[in-house]
């Protein structure tokens, strides 16, 4: 059994980030691999004595802090998320040179996972480009640059690191074009976001363990919005009237915890499991989230897309949404006050035919990248 080490964001509160990690991990396990997530903390190569002294000082500070500032109780949502990660993720924390050496020795293939781990406008972290992997195989699966290009000051460093990969799979067509141009490689492939690798039946099996502390209405519009945009309120009101559905459930995003809407039920206790369950059973999903959109498409759930960024913003992440919707012929799902085509019924039969072919292509890429 080959051991795969995944480097990606696990998601400290963002549902999409956590679910893409879950999906890639689950699919690799289904394929028969032993999988671990790796968290490498920045460290300098220090002597054993210094490490012991620093550990002792850290423990002393921790004890003093706990005495002086008792830690508040963990809220239910955080507790459920931690339990989710403990159940599904095997996480290796690498803090020393010896641990890193052992990791490299025990790993057959390092994979840069999905999400915007290569978004250099957010941050440039060489760890997400596997700079530590020495002579071991390096593969990327659905890694995203998030924007239209790589930030100028990091282009050479990114190019240097990407040339060490045996296989590069990116999430967006935009990234495929940009990184092919940057590296001069003609073998970079666009592959599905990991959440698409799992079928609706796979997700159904996962969501069966959802636990709600309150009764959920049978018919509802699910609202998950990351951007803090004031115009979302008017857009949501228009959608509510258009679909004549008075029940709105809001799952607060980590980045937009205080979003509310008159008469809506704000469900703050969703773990990734309850998030998926609520999405699966929704009559309609209103979102500006890439992964909520992807999961809606995967489950054939109607949705309306809110645009989080202005298109002329250099750091706009709209390109990933445009790539996704355009690929499945769903550009008309973007909210438009002058064109209400987003109220039309989606022909999901055609969408699922395309998605089925995409899933096979992406799974073939993943296996080939690891094995060859």
- How many beta-strand elements? 12
Shape: globular
Tell me the Rg in angstroms.
Answer: 22 Å
Strand content: 5-15%
- Poorly predicted runs: none
* Total domain modules: 2
**Average pLDDT number:** 92
Helical run tally: 13
CATH topology of the largest domain: Rossmann fold
The CATH H-level superfamily of the largest domain is: 3-Deoxy-D-manno-octulosonic-acid transferase, N-terminal domain
Distance between the termini: 15 Å
Report strand order across the widest sheet. Answer: 3-2-1-4-5-6-7
How much helicity do the residues have? 40-55%
Based on secondary structure, the structural category is alpha/beta
- Note the run of SSEs as H and E: EHEHHEHEEHEHEHHEHEEHEHEHH
Write the layout of secondary structure elements.
Blueprint: E1 3-7, H1 15-30, E2 34-40, H2 48-68, H3 76-88, E3 91-94, H4 97-106, E4 109-112, E5 137-143, H5 155-162, E6 167-170, H6 173-183, E7 189-190, H7 194-197, H8 200-207, E8 221-224, H9 232-243, E9 248-250, E10 265-266, H10 272-280, E11 284-287, H11 290-298, E12 303-305, H12 318-327, H13 348-371
Parallel strand pairs: 1-2, 1-4, 2-3, 4-5, 5-6, 6-7, 8-9, 8-11, 9-10, 11-12
């Amino acid at each position: 059994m080959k051991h795969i080490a995944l480097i990606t964001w696990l998601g400290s509160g963002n549902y999409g980030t956590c679910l893409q990690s879950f999906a890639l991990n689950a699919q690799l396990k289904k394929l028969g691999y032993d999988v671990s997530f790796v968290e490498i903390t920045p460290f300098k190569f220090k002597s054993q004595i210094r490490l012991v002294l620093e550990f002792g000082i850290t423990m002393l500070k921790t004890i003093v802090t706990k005495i002086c500032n008792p830690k508040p109780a963990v809220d239910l949502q955080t507790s459920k998320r931690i339990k989710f990660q403990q159940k599904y993720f095997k996480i290796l924390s690498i803090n020393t040179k010896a641990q890193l050496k052992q990791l490299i020795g025990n790993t057959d293939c390092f994979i840069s996972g999905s999400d915007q781990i290569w978004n250099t406008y957010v941050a440039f972290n060489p760890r997400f480009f596997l700079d530590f992997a020495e002579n071991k195989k390096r593969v990327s699966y659905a890694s995203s640059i998030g924007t239209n290009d790589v930030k100028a000051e990091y282009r050479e460093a990114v190019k240097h690191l990407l040339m060490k990969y045996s296989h590069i799979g990116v999430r967006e067509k935009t990234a495929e074009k940009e990184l092919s141009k940057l590296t001069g490689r003609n073998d970079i492939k666009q592959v599905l976001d990991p959440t698409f690798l799992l079928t609706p039946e796979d997700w159904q099996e996962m969501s069966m363990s959802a636990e709600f502390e309150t009764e959920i209405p049978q018919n509802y519009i699910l609202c998950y919005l990351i951007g803090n945009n004031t115009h979302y309120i008017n857009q949501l009101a228009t959608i509510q009237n258009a679909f004549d559905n008075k029940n709105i459930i809001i799952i607060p995003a980590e980045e937009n915890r205080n979003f509310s809407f008159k008469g809506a039920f704000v469900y703050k206790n969703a773990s990734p499991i309850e998030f998926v369950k609520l999405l699966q059973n929704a009559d309609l999903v209103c979102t500006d989230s890439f992964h909520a959109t992807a999961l809606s498409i995967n489950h054939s759930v109607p949705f309306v897309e809110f645009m989080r960024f202005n298109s002329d913003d250099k750091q706009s992440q709209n390109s990933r949404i445009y790539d996704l919707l355009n690929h499945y012929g769903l550009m008309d799902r973007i909210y438009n006050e002058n064109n209400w085509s987003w109220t039309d019924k989606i022909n999901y039969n055609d969408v699922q035919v395309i998605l089925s072919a995409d899933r096979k292509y992406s799974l073939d890429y993943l296996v080939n990248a690891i094995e060859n």
